[in-house]
Design goal:
Elements lengths: L7 H10 L7 E9 L4 E9 L5 E8 L12 H4 E8 L5 E7 L7 E9 L5 E7 L2 H13 L5 H7 L18 H11 L8 H18 L5 H15 L3 H5 L3 H13 L7 H16 L5 H11 L1 H4 L14 H7 L7 H18 L8 E2 L9 E2 L26 H12 L19 H11 L21 H9 L19 H14 L21 H12 L19 H24 L1
Antiparallel strand pairs: 1-2, 2-5, 3-4, 3-6, 6-7, 8-9
Length: about 575
C-alpha cells in the first residue's frame, strides 16, 4: 500500500479520469470498514490485466468540484494507490487517521486511464466504538435494544433485518445474552458476530420468512453462523433452495444450534433436492445416511421384487424432514406391494416393476389383436384430470396394452420408466419377440422387462444410454419417447405425411441433436404438440398420460394408413 503525498494536482487528475472513454472499467467495487478501523476495498478492473487504482476519501457531504489548494487538507482525508492482481482483481485494506470522526464517507476510485466510481461507507471512531462496547457490556436485557439504537451509527452494519416489522426483539435479546461472556465482549468485533448470529436466528425462526428471504439471510450471515460459505457457494441453485426450506422447518434454541444442526440440515436438503434422480435418492437413504434415516429395510421392503420402484415413487414428493421421508417410504412400499400382488384371474397379473402396465404371461397372444375400440367407456376414476388423454387411456386399456394400479386408478400424472415404456410399445405395435441369447447390463434374464427391452434392442430400435446399458429404471424423457417411437414407425414402415401448418417450439434449442429430426417429423404430422405456451420441454420426464396419448395417436395413424391401403 502506498500513501501518496497530498496534492491538488493529484486530485484534479483523478477527477479528470471519469471523463475519459477507456477500456479500463471498475466492476463489483465494494468498500466497508470494520470495528477495528480497517477499511477494505474489493473489486476488479475489467478489460485490462495488471493495473493500478488511485483513490481518495472524503466525507460524503463534500462536493469534490469545490476542492482547491486552500481547503484540500480539510476535505480529503486519505490519498492512496494500489496495484491489482494479474487478472485485474483487488482486495486491500487501509486505515483512516485516528482523528477521523464517526460518519459516512466516500471513496473516489479511478483505474489508471479509466472511468471513476464512488462508493459510500460507514466509519466509526475509536472513541465511539469504545462507548458502544461499554454500553453493550453493561446493558441489561430490558435496555439492550435502547443501547443498540442509540449507537446505531457506530455499529457499521445493516439494520434492515433488525428493524423489519414484527422482528422479535425479545428473542434477539435472549440470544445475545446467551452468548455474551460473563466478563463482557472483548471488543466490538466479537459483539458484531453475535449480533449477526442472533439476527439470523430470529429471522429464520419467524414463520413469515419466505424461502427466498431465508436464502438471503444465509448468504448475508452464514459465515457468522459457522457455515462454510465457500462450500455453500458451490451448491446448485436447487440445493440452496432445498437447504433454505429445511432451515425454515428447524427450531433453533440458540444461534449456535444452527451449526450443530448443519449436518442434519444438509442431509435433508440433499434428499429433498434429488428431483427425478431416484437412483441418487436410493443411495442417500440406504447408503450415505442409512443410520440417520433408519428406514425399516428389513420389513415389507425386503420382500419386494422390484425395490427400485419404491424410490422411483418417492421422487418428487416432499422429503424435507426425516419424518416425511419415513412416511413416504412406508406409503411407497405399500403401493409397490399392492402392485406385486395378483389382482385378477387367469394369466393377467400386475408384475413387479410394471408400473400398473399389464404383463401377460403369453405376450405373443396379443399379436392377433386388431384395431382399438375408440368408443371405450371411462375405466379409471382419476383420468378426469387429463381429459386430453382420456380417450387414449381408455382405448389402450380396453385393448390390454395398459392397466391401472388395481384400485381403479391409472395415476396418469406419474412419471414412466424406460422399462415400462418398452413394454407398452412392444405390445402396442406387435413387435414382441422372446430372445434368450442377449442381455444388457441392466436387463438380465431375471428382470421382468428383459423380453420387452431386448425385443427393441435386437431390432435396433433402442441404442441405450451407453454401450450395453439401456437405463431401464430411469425415467423416460419426452425427447427419448418421440425418438424411440419414430424408430418404431420406421421399423413398421409407416410413413407420416406433413401437416400444412406448424410452429417451431420456443425451446427448440434445448432439444438434443439426436432427437430433433424425430420431433420435427411427429410435430409436422400432428402427432405431438406443445404445452400451450409453445414449448415442448424435451428433457422433462414423460408421464403415463403423455405416453398413452402419443402411442394412441401413432396407432390411429397406422390404422388410417392401413385402411387406405385396403381401399386401393
Amino acid at each position: 500500500m502506498k500513501k501518496l503525498k497530498m496534492s491538488m494536482a493529484f486530485i484534479l487528475i483523478l477527477q479528470l479520469f471519469h471523463m475519459n472513454v477507456s477500456a479500463a472499467v471498475l466492476s463489483n467495487v465494494e468498500v466497508a470498514s470494520n470495528p477495528d478501523g480497517v477499511v477494505t476495498v474489493t473489486g476488479k478492473v475489467l478489460a485490462v490485466r495488471e493495473s493500478s487504482v488511485e483513490f481518495y476519501v472524503t466525507k460524503k457531504t463534500v462536493d469534490t468540484a469545490f476542492i482547491n489548494d486552500d481547503n484540500l487538507k480539510q476535505n480529503v482525508i486519505y490519498l492512496g494507490k494500489f496495484d491489482t492482481d494479474r487478472d485485474g482483481s483487488f482486495h486491500y485494506h487501509f486505515k483512516l487517521p485516528l482523528s477521523t470522526a464517526t460518519g459516512i464517507y466516500t471513496a473516489h476510485l479511478s483505474p489508471v486511464g479509466g472511468d471513476a466510481v464512488n462508493r459510500d461507507f460507514k466509519f466509526a471512531s475509536e472513541a465511539d466504538l469504545a462507548a458502544l462496547l461499554d454500553g453493550i457490556n453493561h446493558a441489561s436485557k430490558s435496555n439492550l435494544i435502547t443501547v443498540i439504537l442509540s449507537n446505531k451509527e457506530n455499529m457499521l452494519t445493516d439494520f434492515t433485518d433488525f428493524e423489519k416489522s414484527g422482528f422479535n426483539q425479545s428473542l434477539f435479546c435472549d440470544f445475545v445474552f446467551m452468548e455474551r461472556p460473563s466478563a463482557g465482549f472483548h471488543d466490538v468485533a466479537e459483539f458484531m458476530k453475535v449480533w449477526s448470529r442472533a439476527v439470523a436466528a430470529v429471522t429464520l425462526l419467524d414463520n413469515r420468512t419466505t424461502v427466498a428471504e431465508a436464502s438471503d439471510i444465509i448468504l448475508k450471515y452464514g459465515a457468522d453462523l459457522g457455515l462454510d460459505m465457500t462450500a455453500y457457494q458451490l451448491f446448485t441453485a436447487g440445493l440452496k433452495e432445498s437447504f433454505s426450506k429445511v432451515v425454515l422447518s428447524e427450531t433453533f434454541l440458540s444461534p449456535g444450534a444452527f451449526i450443530e444442526k448443519y449436518p442434519k440440515i444438509l442431509m435433508n436438503a440433499k434428499v429433498a433436492n434429488v428431483e427425478n434422480k431416484w437412483s441418487d435418492l436410493k443411495r442417500l437413504l440406504i447408503v450415505d445416511y442409512v443410520s440417520e434415516y433408519a428406514l425399516p429395510l428389513n420389513g415389507e421392503y425386503s420382500g419386494l421384487l422390484n425395490k427400485d420402484a419404491v424410490f422411483q415413487d418417492m421422487t418428487g414428493k416432499d422429503l424435507s424432514t426425516i419424518a416425511l421421508v419415513n412416511t413416504e417410504f412406508a406409503n411407497s412400499v405399500n403401493r409397490q406391494k399392492q402392485k406385486e400382488t395378483p389382482v385378477g384371474n387367469g394369466d393377467k397379473i400386475s408384475r413387479p416393476g410394471g408400473g400398473g402396465v399389464i404383463s401377460a404371461s403369453k405376450p405373443a397372444d396379443l399379436v392377433n389383436q386388431t384395431a382399438l375400440d375408440h368408443e371405450g367407456t371411462a375405466k379409471f376414476s382419476d383420468t378426469g384430470t387429463v381429459l386430453w388423454a382420456e380417450e387414449a387411456i381408455n382405448s389402450l386399456s380396453k385393448a390390454g396394452i395398459i392397466s391401472g394400479d388395481g384400485n381403479g386408478l391409472f395415476r396418469p400424472n406419474d412419471k414412466i420408466t424406460r422399462a415400462e415404456f418398452a413394454k407398452i410399445v412392444t405390445i402396442a405395435f406387435h413387435i414382441y419377440e422372446k430372445y434368450t441369447d442377449v442381455t444388457l447390463s441392466d436387463a438380465d434374464y431375471d428382470d421382468w422387462y428383459h423380453p420387452y427391452v431386448i425385443s427393441l434392442y435386437k431390432k435396433e430400435i433402442i441404442k441405450g444410454i451407453s454401450e450395453n446399458y439401456y437405463g431401464a429404471n430411469e425415467y423416460l424423457t419426452k425427447q427419448d419417447m418421440v425418438t424411440i417411437l419414430d424408430r418404431i414407425r420406421k421399423y413398421i414402415n409407416l410413413e407420416l405425411s406433413e401437416g400444412t401448418e406448424y410452429d417451431s417450439y420456443k425451446d427448440w434449442d434445448e432439444i438434443s441433436d439426436y432427437a430433433a429430426g424425430s420431433i420435427l417429423t411427429f410435430q409436422k404430422a400432428g402427432i405431438i404438440r406443445g404445452d400451450g405456451t409453445g414449448n415442448f420441454f424435451p428433457k422433462n420426464c414423460s408421464t403415463r398420460a403423455e405416453v398413452c396419448k402419443v402411442v394412441y395417436q401413432l396407432i390411429r395413424y397406422n390404422e388410417f394408413v392401413t385402411l387406405k391401403e385396403r381401399v386401393k
